[in-house]
């Protein structure tokens, strides 16, 4: 049995992009969903950090699992490496959706009480949302 809401981790090559997307998503949830940004390298450059992803996963897990949204392909590789190294990955899903729209959709679904599969699906389905 799980408790809490599904957490969300945003993995970006840019600390600013990850933080901005997390801030936007947090606004739509009213602060009810744990959203953790894992952006940039450990020394502040563009890139990704396995250490930041590992810490973000730990912080985001409130008992109902974590959905991870990466921005670009090599962020996916970083997340997969972390998941291979950490052992228990049953409570983590990597979503293949647009970074900003996916973050917002995932957050809304998590805030509404969606389970980990529903939250990941919402992030992925956001690619079909039209703006015009």
TrEMBL record:
Listed under catalytic activity are: dihydroxyacetone + phosphoenolpyruvate = dihydroxyacetone phosphate + pyruvate
GO cellular component terms, alphabetically, are: membrane
Pfam families in the record? EIIA-man (PF03610)
Q: Which InterPro entries match?
A: DhaM, DhaM_N, PTS_EIIA_man-typ, PTS_EIIA_man-typ_sf
One term of GO molecular function? phosphoenolpyruvate-glycerone phosphotransferase activity
Q: Which domain of life is it from?
A: Bacteria
Annotated transmembrane regions: none
Specify whether Transferase is a keyword of the entry: yes
Q: What positions does the domain PTS EIIA type-4 occupy?
A: 5-130
Enzyme Commission number(s): 2.7.1.121
Keyword DNA repair recorded: no
One GO biological process term? glycerol catabolic process
Its EC top class is: transferase
Keyword annotations: Transferase
Q: How does it assemble?
A: Homodimer. The dihydroxyacetone kinase complex is composed of a homodimer of DhaM, a homodimer of DhaK and the subunit DhaL.
Query: What is this protein's function per UniProt?
Result: Component of the dihydroxyacetone kinase complex, which is responsible for the phosphoenolpyruvate (PEP)-dependent phosphorylation of dihydroxyacetone. DhaM serves as the phosphoryl donor. Is phosphorylated by phosphoenolpyruvate in an EI- and HPr-dependent reaction, and a phosphorelay system on histidine residues finally leads to phosphoryl transfer to DhaL and dihydroxyacetone.
Q: What is the protein name for this chain?
A: phosphoenolpyruvate--glycerone phosphotransferase
Q: What species was this sequence derived from?
A: Trebonia kvetii
């Amino acid at each position: 049995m799980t408790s809490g809401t599904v957490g969300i981790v945003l993995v970006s090559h840019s600390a600013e992009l990850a933080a901005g997307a997390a801030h936007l998503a947090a606004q739509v949830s009213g602060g009810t969903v744990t959203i953790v940004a894992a952006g940039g390298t450990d020394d502040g450059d563009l890139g990704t950090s396995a250490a930041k992803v590992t810490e973000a996963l730990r912080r985001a897990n409130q008992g109902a699992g974590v959905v991870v949204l990466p921005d670009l392909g090599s962020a996916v590789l970083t997340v997969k490496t972390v998941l291979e190294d950490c052992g228990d990955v049953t409570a983590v899903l990597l979503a293949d959706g647009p970074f900003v729209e996916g973050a917002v959709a995932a957050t809304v679904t998590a805030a509404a009480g969606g389970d980990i599969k529903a939250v990941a699906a919402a992030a992925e389905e956001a690619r079909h949302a039209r703006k015009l």
